[in-house]
């Protein structure tokens, strides 16, 4: 019996020593137990890597219908299931406000790189939503190619004229293909309690296309603290607000519309964040 046990132990050790993947997994688990900072970096790395892989692996299938938003449906389901293993779950409210026949602009607050998983969760509800992201992401091959094939819109933030041309084309797609552009009006991600001032580009797109604006508020990621390097467990509450029509509006209305949406989203962000805090543990 002792010889058998010894043989099993030696065989297991040989498997471990010859498997880099197994060594990495064990190192991540041990590191997570010893250090919350290590856990933060490990979780962020694994989630970003997972998001990369689930989108890149099916690229051959995307070629059958390129630029189709629902190409990302299955990868999104996998990504949401995976992040749930890390203790993060999503609660969606306000689905009754979604009208898939309406193209338009969906406004979201931007908090972290893991917002990519949140967007994939929303795809299941909207089904016609495509994110607008910075052009630099397109050059992260093959992730950029995969993103392009699922309909992601790339804009060059450093080139205002180019960005405007892209958004004008997408304004046509809003009307013609009933697409909803998911835009982060703050322009950059942050984890503050107060939303950053909204840029007006997304509002110009909605007014130019005479379509709707639909605010979607995501509660604060209390389980995630980038400054203290903490990544715990928690619930994200996402609230889909009623559509705001822009029919009949002109460019003269953009400033007032921007301010109204910012105030609305800040009020809802405060309420949802206070509620979500009780479900979060670092």
Automatic annotation (TrEMBL):
Recorded hits in CDD domains, A to Z, give: LPLAT_AGPAT-like
Give the source lineage, highest ranks first: Eukaryota, Metazoa, Ecdysozoa, Arthropoda, Hexapoda
**Similarity comment:** Belongs to the 1-acyl-sn-glycerol-3-phosphate acyltransferase family.
Q: Which reaction does it catalyse?
A: a 1-acyl-sn-glycero-3-phosphate + an acyl-CoA = a 1,2-diacyl-sn-glycero-3-phosphate + CoA
The segment(s) forming the Phospholipid/glycerol acyltransferase domain are: 104-221
Among PANTHER family, the record links this protein to: 1-ACYL-SN-GLYCEROL-3-PHOSPHATE ACYLTRANSFERASE
Q: What is this protein called?
A: 1-acyl-sn-glycerol-3-phosphate acyltransferase
A molecular function annotated in GO for this UniProt entry is: 1-acylglycerol-3-phosphate O-acyltransferase activity
On whether Ribonucleoprotein is a keyword of this UniProt record, the answer is: no
Keywords of the record, alphabetical order, are: Acyltransferase, Lipid biosynthesis, Lipid metabolism, Membrane, Phospholipid biosynthesis, Phospholipid metabolism, Transferase, Transmembrane, Transmembrane helix
The answer to whether keyword rRNA-binding applies is: no
According to its UniProt entry, this protein's organism is Anopheles coluzzii (African malaria mosquito)
So where does this one cross the membrane?
45-64, 70-87, 137-155
The record, for Pfam families, names: Acyltransferase
> Tell me, what is an example of a GO biological process annotation in this record?
phosphatidic acid biosynthetic process
Q: What does the record's free text say on domains?
A: The HXXXXD motif is essential for acyltransferase activity and may constitute the binding site for the phosphate moiety of the glycerol-3-phosphate.
Name the pathway: Phospholipid metabolism; CDP-diacylglycerol biosynthesis; CDP-diacylglycerol from sn-glycerol 3-phosphate: step 2/3
Q: What is its EC number?
A: 2.3.1.51
Top-tier EC class: transferase
Gene Ontology CC annotations of this record: endoplasmic reticulum; membrane
């Amino acid at each position: 019996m002792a010889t058998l046990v010894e043989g099993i132990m030696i065989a297991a050790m040989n498997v471990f020593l010859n498997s880099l993947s197994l060594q990495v997994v064990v190192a991540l688990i041990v590191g997570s137990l010893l250090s919350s900072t290590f856990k933060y970096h490990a979780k962020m790395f694994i989630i970003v890597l997972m998001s990369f892989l689930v989108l890149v692996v099916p690229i051959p299938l995307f070629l059958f219908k390129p630029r189709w938003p629902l190409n990302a449906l299955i990868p999104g389901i996998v990504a949401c299931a995976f992040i749930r293993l890390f203790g993060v779950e999503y609660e969606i409210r306000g689905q009754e406000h979604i009208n898939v026949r309406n193209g338009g602009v969906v406004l979201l607050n931007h908090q972290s790189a893991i917002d990519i998983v949140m967007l994939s969760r929303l795809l299941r509800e909207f089904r016609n939503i495509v994110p607008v992201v910075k052009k630099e992401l397109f050059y992260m091959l093959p992730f950029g190619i995969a993103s392009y094939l699922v309909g992601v819109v790339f804009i060059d933030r450093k080139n205002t004229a180019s960005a405007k041309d892209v958004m004008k084309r997408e304004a046509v797609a809003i009307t013609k293909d009933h697409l909803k552009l998911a835009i982060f009006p703050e322009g950059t991600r942050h984890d503050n309690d107060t939303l950053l001032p909204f840029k007006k580009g997304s509002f110009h797109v909605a007014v130019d296309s005479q379509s709707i604006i639909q605010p979607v508020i995501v509660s604060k990621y209390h389980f995630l603290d980038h400054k203290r390097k903490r990544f715990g467990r928690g619930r994200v509450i996402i609230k889909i607000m009623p559509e705001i029509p822009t029919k009949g509006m002109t460019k003269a209305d953009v400033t007032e519309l921007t301010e109204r949406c910012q105030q609305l989203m800040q009020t809802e962000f405060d309420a949802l964040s206070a509620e979500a805090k009780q479900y979060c543990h670092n």
